[in-house]
Amino acid sequence: MPNRKDYTIGWISAIECEYIAGKAFLDAEHPIPDDLPVNDNNVYTLGEIGKHNVVIATLPSGQYGISSATAVVKDMLHSFPNIRIGLMVGVGGGAPLYLPDADEQDIRLGDIVVSKPIDGQSGVIQYDFGKNIQNQEFKLTGFLNQPPPLLLAAITGLSSQYAMNLHGNGLNGCIDSVLDKYPGLKKDYQRPDLVSDKLYRAQVTHPAHATTGASCATLCGDDPSKLVQRPERPEAGTP
After folding, report:
1. Domains (ranges, CATH) in the chain?
2. pLDDT tens string 73-92
3. Is 80 exposed, middle or buried (0-12, 13-18, 19+ CB in 10 A)?
4. Which of 42, 94, 117, 208 could be a cystine partner for 57, CB 3.0 to 4.6 Å?
């Protein structure tokens, strides 16, 4: 039976699909300890990734936001007192920016994005930490705290390793292994086909009351004049 004090990484997922993906990437899953506090409202998946013992929890169904996440973290830290690092891992939303002379800005569907501090800011902006003023640029009014030094050092290490690795970062192989292990996940969790990754120009407005399940090509059209033309990447899936 695992000891609750042996777990050092806390992993929070906001929605079910993020939780499923996290569980699928565990190298091994551990049984739930019998001595969890009775007032802990979380449901956990325990396991290991590499040499790290990981605790994964998700927000209650249909409940999102800071207050729900805070409650989950509070119970997790009480039940697993030696957690050293907390991670919020999941699906990100954002606006892709394509600049022909700046390939590092070219975000595609299925990319994994890791933010880092720059110019004294944390690298993660809370959605309500800013304001729009007519005819002016978006004004940032606050940002979240920076990650701990250990994680910032890890980012530098991973970045240098990727730069020196002529065979890519190995993510595609890891994802393929997981999908082979859980073939039922392929339909909804494999990387989208490249032909579906269309970047519409900012002037194209997606209908507010779209039919459920309808594609952007159906709703907005696939006229080339509405799309930002982007060249294929040298290797599919390479950031």
Report:
1. 4-88 (3.40.50.1580), 103-197 (no CATH), 198-232 (no CATH)
2. 999 999 999 999 988 888 87
3. buried
4. 42
